[in-house]
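Protein 1 of 2
SEQ + STRUCT:
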Amino acid sequence: YPGGDIESSLLAEVGRWMSPLGKLMGLDWQMMVALLTSVVRKENTIPTLAVLYAQGAEGIGLGEVLAQHLSPAAALAFLAVQILFLPCVATVSTLHQETRSWGWTFLSISILFVISMGAGILRVKDEKLLQHLQAEAAVLVFPKARHQLSRQVMLAPGRAVKGIHQQSSIQERQ
């Protein structure tokens, strides 16, 4: 970053440009920059996050800082994207060397990009679907609680399943 300010760097601008895609997964521009730097080497992700999030925050670990900035669903989306994201430069070079075609190389990279972003977006959307399926499963397992569950799901879907499980264990003890 030429002026010494991370916020005005070229990489930060590219990250902000990609932030609408990141917002679909619950990720901010810093997380998108970390994904981009992983194209050079996958190991660059953690140091990039440390520089972007922990600048000036002495005594606070990166895990604590990320826990403040990311929801569990966004963290899992980031992991899914990171695992499936574009390969590093060395892998791209090997892919080109083996296929002897830039067309196949770019096609492979494009497919990986679409799959990784799709997996990240679906992971966040699955969080809501998972809560709904847990509620439905609780109704099947505890049919007496159907009315109460439907009322609680409308109020707070995540806590409804916990409440039903707690209530059923109390009933079993009696």
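Protein 2 of 2
SEQ + STRUCT:
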Amino acid sequence: KVFTETTRTNNARTHCLVVEAAGERYALPLTHVVEIVAGGACTPVPGAPPAIKGLFLLRDTVLLVVDLAARLGLQHPDDNEKTDNNWYVVLDHERGRCAFAFEQLVEIEYFSDSNFQSANTPDSVIKGLFVGDNSNTLLLNSDVLVDEQIRTILASHHQNLSGQQHDTTEASLR
């Protein structure tokens, strides 16, 4: 069995952003969500894994953008959709902010924890499943979603940008 039913005595709720990627519903806890923005053109990152769409400029901040479906190892229903993600969700992570691209913003929803089935592996990108009357929604583990490859690119990216900003500041002081 992939998911374990959990029994809770309280009526706790989890507040999530629900998105669609590769035709599936996924929930991200709002505690990690900074903002949702309309997707745009990305600058490719040389040598990056296929899940990395590239770099995106958002109000003078450069963000690393990851294709959510590709990060989850999913095939897009239509190959044309792979490059046409309509939305980016910006997540706060210990090494900086990054964005995940997805096809459709579904809703912001409170899920009852009594309808939650936990994944059996704590280090999985899928934390569990919210079972609904009309549809099921997979809860993503935000900490695992940003994997070591993404962390390395984020660290390198932030170090390079900090160096460039430092060089620009020194040049303007001369």
